[in-house]
Amino acid sequence: MHDQSIKARKQIISILILLVLIVITILYYLKGYTLQDLQNALANANFAYLFGGFFMIIIFVICEAINIYLILKTLNHKIPFFRCFEYSSIGFYFSSITPSASGGQPAQIYYMKQDKIPMAASSITIFFIVYVYQIAMILIGFIMTLLRFSEALYFISKLRYLFIYGMIMNTGAIFIFFSLMYSKKLAPSIVAFILKVGNKLRLVKSIDETKNRFDKSLVSYHEKAMILKTHPLLFLKILLFSIIQMLALNSIPYLVYCSMGYRTKGILDMITCQSILTISVSAVPLPGAEGVTQGGFLQVFNAFFPSDMLTYAMLINRVISFYLPLLLSFILYIFIHIRTTKQSIRGDFLEGKQN
């Protein structure tokens, strides 16, 4: 119960930090604009395109759900697809409210554990998805750069150091996740280091006993990793759905562009632009990369939107791709958490009766 209250407190703090960042960002970028101006911009927008943009985010979440379903099925855990959609939504919510999207994966693993999925299976599932997702992100950016070379160089020059930072962090993440999955030396070394630090901080009492428990889990974890390694077709399937994820996410600005009545620029140019921006801001250590994402949008998408409509386009794009899905995923998370808590209480009650 104490652990639950600590987790709830941390979550509330994360949400409050995100809300403060959102308010500061909106006040900063909408300085000099009135609410009436925003209403006029929305009144003239084509909502069919805006709905299409929101549908892209639904596709984004569904693709991750498909990936979770495929990997767990390969590991002989037959989970209903809607439950996988719940895991994906939980990941979206917690990734959005934590720096560098760091909270999404632990939350997904936690709720899989509540559904009796072993930690080794859930961990390798999530690590594999993140690993392939990073590859898809870089791959799409590379392909779009080849297709629109001069445009890509222009966008990169606008973001410069932010893009370099994003490339280093994302390629580094690919290497780390690959090593964690397939290296038999790296994971035990990391565990040993964490246990030593934990012991010095008096968080871990018995290093040997704790290490033995971890070693057993790591054996099972690497067994699961080897199963995935023997299914190369699975990698291609996960990569395909991850590419669809990235294309769905990166096409939203184009749909916002069309909703405002513009048609002169092509979809490939705008996907190239958003691909570069996605790589640049994905590892920013702020909840939802709030503030930096909007600033980056204004930096690169001024090549497409008129200056008097650029800020509105940025805000509409952010509502569709982040604020609205964040709210909906939070509502779904509340229902999932209530159900999980009830199941946990019922299980503890039945276990107590048996004893």
Q: Share of helix among residues? A: over 70%
The tally of strands reads 0
Largest sheet features: none
* pLDDT < 50 stretches: none
| Beta-strand content | under 5%
How many DSSP helices? 15
Question: Shape from CA axes?
Answer: globular
Class inferred from helices and paired strands: mainly alpha
Walkthrough of the structure:
This protein is mainly alpha-helical. Helices cover 82% and strands 0% of the residues. Helix 3 runs parallel beside helix 15. It has helices at 2-29, 35-43, 47-74, 81-97, 104-114, 119-147, 149-159, 161-182, 186-200, 207-229, 232-250, 252-259, 267-281, 292-300, 307-354. It contains 15 helices and no strands. The mean pLDDT is 85.
Concise account of the structure shown:
The protein is mostly helical and 355 residues long.
Descriptive labels:
355 residues, 82% helix, globular
Set down the secondary structure blueprint.
Blueprint (H helix, E strand, L loop, with lengths): L1 H28 L5 H9 L3 H28 L6 H17 L6 H11 L4 H29 L1 H11 L1 H22 L3 H15 L6 H23 L2 H19 L1 H8 L7 H15 L10 H9 L6 H48 L1
